[in-house]
Amino acid sequence: MSDSPPRLSLFPAVLMLLSLTAAVERSSAQELSQIVPSDAYSYMHVLPDPSMDFVHQANMGVWKAIQDASLHESVLTLLRANDVPDEDLAQVEGLISLCSKLLGDVEWSQFVENEMVYAEFPVVPYPGIQGGVSSVLMACRPQRELVPGLERSMIDLMQGVAGITPELSLSSSETSAVPPTRVHSLLIGKKYPILQLGVRDDIMLAGFGATVFGRALDQLEGRSDDALVDTPRFLNAVGELPAHSNQFVYFDIKGLIDYLFEQIGPQLQRHSDNDWLVRQGLDDLHGLLSFLDTSVTAVHAEDRLLVSECWTRFDPIAARSDNPLFESFCKPANVTALVDYIPADATSFCVDGGADLRPLYRWVRGRVPAYVPESADGLLALEGIQALVDISIEDDLLSWIGSESVTISMPSKRPTAVGGEEQIMIVRLRDPSGAKKVLARIDAVYSAIVPQLLERLQAELGGQAVLPEIELRDAGGSFPQFKRLTLRFSIPQVPIPIPPIDVVIGVLGKQLVITSSEEALLRVMDVAAGEIDGIWDHPAMAGGRLPEGDITGLRFVPVGKQLTELTQGIAMGGGMAQMLLSQAGRGDPEVERMAMFVGDVLPRINGILASLNFLEDEVGYSETRDKGMTRYSRTTTRYRDN
Q: Could you tell me if 311 and 296 are in contact, meaning their C-beta atoms sit under 8 angstroms apart?
């Protein structure tokens, strides 16, 4: 029910006359959030937000492109060409027809244009269905005049589904509440509902699963008061949501994990010769994950920016120092200083506080063999490889690799640069001397592994494959202490030459550098020295998209540019694949049909991708709060102007 207090009228007689319609008014004013039962582990609430209209319009364009693509026509053409039996083809055509009806005949956007809640619940046992059914609930409040038409569309759809098999049937009834709720149920075995639709005044309620619809109906009609949004756990999780959060998602991570382990444990123990060992192993794994608590994500718009904010909370009791998973992945370092390496014309970048894998590696080595004896052989083989190359994963790798890193792509002046760009990755080191010792042995590691590996691959592939040429040598130039790894590829069937891939590796000060060229390294060093423009002059960072405080992560993704490159790649690769298939399949009808399918379906996919051309770029950053017990992240996606 609404939180607002009832208004008292000065005219009792008028109040008495209006009492006949009071029930209808209360139903109309009822909060949809109060319908969702308290055991939901995932919950989404969407309210009308005029500032998000540009997002809605863009999504409708994508939806139209998906419909216009008619991907099913390519599938049917391929099936008919492959002489699929008429009976099987008829089943596929019937399924496609049903999907077309589902996607085309129902105006789904009208369900959610006013208000909508969506929730998911744990799997529950269900007659005749192994493993049970995952329960889903959706409630919406369309425009009142649209409700009858939407109800009719859903009934027609459910009747269409019921016509697939005699095991399914549709029944309709009406509750005795005031006002009543019209209930339409899709039944299996004429007894067990798998999909139910309820319509009460201007509220439409749909439930998939065994009991969730009935419990939500009790909430709707006032017979129960067990709403998720009233629980202390939910209220605590959403406490930091901004006032303008008209769209948000709540996820009870701990609740779902606890439920899964309750269900998985007994099943595994029943099929194990050592149920105590299974139980102990599951308890250990459950303990590893127990620090994950809740996650809340809110979405709003600022001009042409779609803003998504996420708060992930950790349980301070479970997030103790002896939890290797928390220690490894949930203590990211401050990476603010690494931002200074990013040039103003960077095409993409990612700065990450990273992970310290040492605690988790020790846990895996110490615990996994006891619970999974079969893993002993794999770990023994790993020890053998470490002995062969004289490098210990824990002592020679994990001990000196830091968690902070920055990866940057930038324009290149080299004509042979892959994609016309340079890439560089810089990783902070705990122990630069340890890194130098390992890199000094890289020649020996290369000689011990690479030739034998290539020889074995060639033998297993029967000498038919053309494997890449791999060369390792001193880098020379401005960084003679670095190593250069070059990979050269050649494909006889492809007449276009493939540029070689160069990787330059070395230690510079307290940092490990992996780059496509020394020019890229010299450039980021100039940025860090302040000699050329850096990230603060990057065009995508305007408008407050880059925070000024300490951060544990930052990324920039040129979504529009990547989509353009993807569509171009599909067009080029699809044409080449069709050509190669046609050449290889001359006289082979099956290969020729596949070539025709590739030539038909890829342009349809490209048409869908092209409808995403409203996306410009994405900037995201993260930080830790509440003494490390909350991970906050903010992502802004820029939409192009029409």
A: yes
